[in-house]
Design a protein that fits this description.
Blueprint: H1 13-17, H2 31-42, E1 53-59, H3 63-70, H4 75-81, E2 86-93, H5 106-123, E3 127-131, H6 136-142, E4 149-158, H7 170-175
Antiparallel strand pairs: 1-2, 2-4, 3-4
Helix pairs in contact: 2-5
């Protein structure tokens, strides 16, 4: 299933095609393709080239590891994510390696790496679904995160299922329209809240 964005301005197809389904087929993701997704993440920009992102990954062909990672999601996310072929936990290194000072850009940079991964995945016909609903303390414990490393999000990766095969209530969610606030509500100039001239607002 595809659900391209109805954009107000022209953007690249790989951006408009990216969306977050709840329904995933049981088709496996080739390991070489997964490696390419992480290669895309590898080349993301970061403050001082710190590269603070870390990824924990589990696939359905490793049932014990997959169940372990699934248990780190909230119950609502487990309900649909148990069917996806690949689960990822994103982790941020919160201090600069060069001086051990706090890295205020760490979460931003993990987001950049995750976005690079997402667009590479979308270009290859894959779908992703980000999750903020995770058990952070469980992740710290299960994966023995060192001091200075913080869980950020989870990501489901796979091939979107045909809408007819997606059970309710997830089918209804996957059918729902994609919406975003207009750019004049978040692109400002001169003062916070004042729409920039380029927005036409």
């Amino acid at each position: 299933m595809s659900k391209p964005a109805n954009t107000d301005h022209d953007i690249h197809d790989v951006l408009s095609a990216r969306w977050s389904p709840y329904g995933f087929s049981d088709r496996a993701v080739d390991k070489a393709v997964l490696s390419s997704l992480f290669e895309a993440a590898r080349w993301a920009a970061s403050s001082f080239n710190e590269q603070p992102w870390r990824f924990l990954v589990a696939t359905r062909d490793e049932p014990e590891e997959f169940a372990r990672m699934l248990s780190c999601l909230t119950d609502g996310n487990q309900e649909w994510a148990k069917h996806v072929p690949v689960l990822i936990l994103t982790v941020a290194s919160t201090k600069f390696e060069r001086n051990d000072k706090p890295n205020g850009s760490a979460w931003h940079d993990v987001g950049l790496a995750s976005a690079s991964l997402a667009f590479e995945a979308t270009a290859r016909g894959l779908s992703l679904h980000w999750m903020g609903g995770i058990h952070r303390e469980r992740i710290r414990s299960e994966y023995r995160l060192p001091e200075g490393f913080e869980p950020v999000t989870a990501i489901a990766i796979g091939y979107a299922e045909k809408i007819e095969a997606v059970p309710e209530p997830f089918r209804k969610r996957d059918r729902s329209p994609r919406t975003r606030r207009p750019i004049e509500e978040f692109v400002f100039s001169g003062a916070f809240g004042k729409p920039a001239a380029i927005t036409g607002g």
